[in-house]
Amino acid sequence: MDNNGNTIDEKDMKILEILRRDGRKSYTEIAKILDTSESSVRKRIKRMEEEGIIKGYRVEIDPPKIGYNVITFTGFDTNPEDFLSVAKKLCEFEEVKRVWTSTGDHMIMTEIWAKDGKELCEILFDKLGKIKGVRRICPTIILEQWK
Amino acid sequence: MDNNGNTIDEKDMKILEILRRDGRKSYTEIAKILDTSESSVRKRIKRMEEEGIIKGYRVEIDPPKIGYNVITFTGFDTNPEDFLSVAKKLCEFEEVKRVWTSTGDHMIMTEIWAKDGKELCEILFDKLGKIKGVRRICPTIILEQWK
DNA sequence: TTTGAAAATTGGCCTAA
DNA sequence: TTAGGCCAATTTTCAAA
Q1: What is the pLDDT of residues A46-59, one digit of tens each?
Q2: Is residue B142 within 8 Å of residue A109, measured between CB atoms?
Q3: Are residues B97 and B68 part of one domain?
């Protein structure tokens, strides 16, 4: 029993580990790997989905291959009183793929995709920089994903 | 035709968008949404997988619900000559979920999961800090994911 | 694109711990 | 009470035409 009242055992962890590598693997196949029954796997996954342990399944895309050549992690600093509204506003932009609030160097961290450097500048400074309360924008450009 | 010789049309993009939201959606359902045939969708997805446009499918987990209460983006600075070996070494640790090389504040960016603050310290300073060539470790703790 | 066989999914019901 | 086994109906997958 963890601190959220959810029970995760060894078998659940193994299922998650398999789905982390291949989110489309069938119940039957997972069952074969773990030497158990399909129904057991299915019911465990269903439970984890219902309890929110599994938030969903996502395709992983290679951004340059669809024309997005500039991927960044971009930190935002804001006026303290505008913090929440900036975070909320950032979520609305299609170019902003992910948004986190954080401690450390920046209050808000984002993942932003752009087709090229020119487009990145437009997104960061013409669009996001004009959100009320944004103080500083600190982009980190990803060169390569290793893991 | 993009700069990697891959052709992605409107329909492919729509398929990817659907899979970005639900990576387990069936070909049949995707076909229904896009008002096309199951085999068309399936063959397009197969082609995108083969061309590496689709790198894979991943389950998305809520880390605190499986006991990982501290999620960080952690930047690493290294001696220039040790840059590659550090990046490679970081990939080997089970706690280091993702590794990127990057420009900007840090040369290497990672996503690290820990059960609590104590475990995070052990990982960062006892384990990763001892990798040869690591100069500075800059963790950003994620408070909440918004998008 | 259509078709048909094989495989996977899904829900319900049952048993054992 | 709950996880898992079993079965049957439906849906999906997948390759050949």
Answers
A1: 999 999 999 999 99
A2: yes
A3: yes
